[in-house]
């Protein structure tokens, strides 16, 4: 029925310091604090989308420390996630390259279970225009060529855009489920 409960497991990926924790906390509390610890955690957050209660489980991942290559995604993470938010900073080209690798990794896994892994690419820190090293075009092109959603946002400046990212991913997750 219309009150059916919907759950969505969202995995946040990307290089260090791009704003994954800031994005998570912004969505959970609507606030931007400034500094975030290095805690790996799965948060639950209920949000109302078009009159429906949606339970988001958000896995704010940490970058692998020693032993594993940067950008590594574990099989466990791939299996857990219904959808992915890949974050880079528009002032950090290396972080853009990490996202590029991670999209590939997800899509390789995707080819084994079709339609199961929607991805949104997020270019964060748009408020730092003067330090930009990744153009909007590059971000948009990567998303287009890999069939992902794309947003450029500033977690520091706005809550609304952050909410849009999660709602858009939710739409994609629902589409993917409908296709199964
Ligand atoms: P994580 O390592 O990906 O979880 O990154 P954090 O969420 O810890 O953020 C790293 C740093 O970037 C922190 O100092 C944040 O305050 C800062 N930060 C996050 N989002 C933004 C943003 O939109 N604009 C600016 N200027 N700084 C941001
Ligand atoms: Mg973090």
From TrEMBL:
Q: Name one GO molecular function term.
A: GTP binding
Q: What does the record give as the reaction this protein catalyses?
A: GTP + H2O = GDP + phosphate + H(+)
- Asked whether the keyword GTP-binding is assigned, the reply is yes
Q: Which UniProt keywords apply?
A: GTP-binding, Hydrolase, Nucleotide-binding
**What's its EC?**
3.6.5.2
Domain of life the protein comes from: Eukaryota
Which family does the record claim for this protein? Belongs to the small GTPase superfamily. Ras family.
How is this protein named in the record? small monomeric GTPase
Organismal lineage: Eukaryota, Metazoa, Chordata, Craniata, Vertebrata
- Of the intact sequence, the residues represented are 18 to 197 of 220
């Amino acid at each position: 029925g219309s009150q059916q409960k919907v759950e969505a497991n969202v995995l946040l990926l990307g290089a260090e310091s791009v704003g994954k924790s800031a994005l998570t906390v912004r969505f959970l509390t609507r606030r931007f604090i400034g500094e975030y610890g290095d805690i790996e955690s799965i948060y639950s957050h209920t949000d109302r989308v078009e009159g429906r209660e949606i339970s988001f489980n958000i896995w704010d991942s940490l970058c692998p420390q020693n032993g594993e290559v940067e950008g590594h995604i574990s099989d466990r993470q791939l299996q857990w996630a219904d959808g992915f938010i890949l974050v880079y900073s528009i002032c950090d080209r290396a972080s853009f390259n990490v996202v590029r690798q991670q999209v590939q990794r997800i899509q390789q896994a995707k080819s084994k279970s079709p339609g199961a892994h929607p991805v949104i690419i997020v270019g964060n820190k748009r408020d730092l225009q003067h330090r930009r090293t990744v153009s909007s075009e590059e971000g948009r092109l990567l998303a287009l060529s890999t069939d992902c959603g794309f947003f450029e946002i500033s977690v520091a400046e706005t809550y609304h855009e952050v909410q849009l990212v999660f709602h858009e991913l939710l739409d994609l997750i629902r589409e993917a489920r409908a296709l199964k």
